[in-house]
Design brief:
Layout: H1 8-17, E1 21-31, E2 34-44, E3 49-55, H2 64-84, E4 91-96, H3 97-101, H4 107-115, E5 120-124, E6 129-134
Parallel strand pairs: 3-4, 4-5
Antiparallel strand pairs: 1-2, 2-3, 5-6
Length: 135
């Protein structure tokens, strides 16, 4: 299993504050013979709504374009793996508000998110709250 992103616990607490129940961490998806690991599975409204969440903290040691490319690439790979495995649970990419207000709000970021229909969960790592759902 891979190491947790440094924002993992903050996003987990933000989801719980928003009424979600965390039902699994490090969700395994099999793509061919490879194991892929999605950070969280959460449920709400007595299991009526279920989501998967991939968390990216956007480390300040990596340039924003590189972190963006890594996050979007991983998100798209996981989405395809879920589809190929016939798992119809929506996948969200959790990003901090600073990244959303930065590279995600620039022309290239907006175009990529729109073109690939990236579902975003924007969180504030300080208050550990969800500030925006983008579907």
């Amino acid at each position: 299993m891979p190491a947790k992103d440094k924002a993992h616990d903050s996003v987990k607490r933000a989801l719980v504050k928003d009424g979600w129940q965390i039902t699994a961490e490090q969700v395994r998806v099999i793509a061919n013979e490879r194991f892929l690991w999605i950070d969280l599975r959460a449920e709400k409204d007595d299991h009526a709504r279920v989501i998967l969440v991939e968390i990216k903290s956007f480390n300040e040691n990596v340039s924003p374009p590189e972190a963006f490319a890594n996050a979007i690439g991983k998100y798209l790979m996981y989405r395809v793996a879920l589809r190929n495995a016939d798992i119809e649970i929506p996948l969200f990419l959790a990003v901090p508000a600073s990244a959303f207000q930065g590279i995600f709000s620039e022309d290239v970021g907006l175009a990529i998110v729109q073109e690939y229909r990236v579902r975003l969960l924007v969180f504030d790592p300080e208050t550990e709250e969800i500030v925006l759902w983008s579907i």
